[in-house]
């Protein structure tokens, strides 16, 4: 009974909508002024924006738009004398974006909002849609939400205007949010909640389902939706026209529109049970009358619709197949691969457009031609053998390269791929042709380039190679080694390209560690590789080799190192001989310097001892003469006084010569000697000097002490002659097993790189003296910024201890 009642309600609603749309009504005659009539004449079509939502706007099976807003707009636009252009949108934001972009002129069924006032001009409300309270059918009357007990829960869709209103005005209610109006009604049926709140339009849709027939309207929350017609703000004249048209629309027609699309009754204080019983009996009688008339018509309509749908589906399938076939044929004809179907008798049965263009034939000319016209050497016997071989292969395919004969007699290099095919009762070989003219030209150019490279690499006086790596962390191998390896090391290139060999197999065992270390650093850093060391030939001959490579990334983690191994044996031996000669010269220089220092010390001792004794005796003899002859001969007294002065000057000269040859202060230690020398320099030049030496310093070997002292003397001499300094700082300190001396001045400085050969022999002498002592000499100077000299010598282990 309930199912029949639901079906009858749906049928009556559809019939009523047709009745409202097709009823004969008096035409609307709005009172437009001249300007409004002129505007309507200039705009015969108005764009109507619609939100697709039942029962306001929806599509039926024939794609026709129906709904309350559709009927209303048809009636209004008919009175305005314009044609509608319907524009559907999924929701209100999409409609408002379209209005802001000028894509619609007016829209029905909107509610006035503060945000919408910036876009729309709203008409007066033409329809009031209340929010209703729905519960299970009972004998009680309306429900007062303010008196509702706490144990009764009300379901409402969130977010919605009704939910916000109830939370704000009925704080006593226990609200349960739901995702939709249908979900709220289901919770009422499942007794999860007592009531549900939804608007009249949504309720009219949900009540079409038979499961909701036991539900009843039990109240109104007092929040109606006031529906208005909205026009764009930039068209005020259209807004006035819409207002006048709405005023001309009779209120009776709006009530009929409500009854058609929102067929609901509101609760009364009377008993709902008797009302629904009466309505059920009436509808049952009406259903009995209508069902009989519609049953046969409905059956015929369904049969006709099924046949029509089947025919339409079959037609669509044929059209899709034909379109797919045309697309496939277009793709085959316009591909870059020529396709030929060849029968067992070697005659062509099909050729696509690409094959015809490739071979220079007009469309259709290749069909029924023997394949020997494209390849003269392919006689019938050879063709049958080829047919048999391809047919018997498991994969049924074969590939090779030939020169095809084109229609104009020219040759075209082609890559041929054969594939065996059975189609229905026939067998074919499908021949795929690819023009490889450019590939063959590129291959010839590549072969010529490779031959040229091998020729150049073979004539280079060295071993050219390429070291490659596929990805980081993988094994490297020699992708190429020139044939010069046979002449240089006695091994052919293919032997050295083996993974277990390579150039490392030629490296001298004593130099293998440095070779592997330099190679590892180059591979990990993806940088250029340089190495120099000894290699062994096949006859165990030792050669000096120099490897220089350039790293080049190829993308995807691939790296190659292109390089040359040079034979530098002659240059290396000459270099070693030169180094040995320099070492011998340096040893000789050191020996000569040592001998000279020893000779200076010996001469200083002899001058000091021997000449000093003679001068002392001479001084005593002069004193004795002075005592014996004093006051007797005035001239003699003058001569004796002059002799005493000369003897004193000679004493001083002897001391100066002995000190210059070897200062006795060196016997007191290098620290005291340096401080003494700096003070003498300060007295002689009047240049302020700051000297810092350690208080307790071990006794140095004589050679190191003299060498360091001589370097200080030469440095101070250069300051006096060339620096033009105002002050000098001298520091002596010890760092672990190294003794350091620095001499810094604030003079005019110089650029060490600008020194020319043959100049600054003092600096050269200091550098050679430091090399003989096994130390280092460093000079830091810039023009206008002074000069600083650093001398560092390594102390012997015994001295350090």
TrEMBL record:
Domain Histidine kinase, first and last residues per copy: 602-797
InterPro entries in the cross-refs: HATPase_C_sf, HATPase_dom, His_kinase_dom, PAC, PAS, PAS-assoc_C, PAS-like_dom_sf, PAS_fold_3
CDD domains membership: HATPase_UhpB-NarQ-NarX-like, PAS, PBP2_BvgS_HisK_like
Domain PAS: from-to ranges: 332-377, 449-526
Coiled-coil segments on the chain, per record: none
Keywords for this protein: Kinase, Membrane, Signal, Transferase, Transmembrane, Transmembrane helix, Two-component regulatory system
PAC domain segment(s): 398-448
The protein's name in its UniProt record: PAS domain S-box protein
Native species: Ectopseudomonas khazarica
Taxonomic path: Bacteria, Pseudomonadati, Pseudomonadota, Gammaproteobacteria, Pseudomonadales
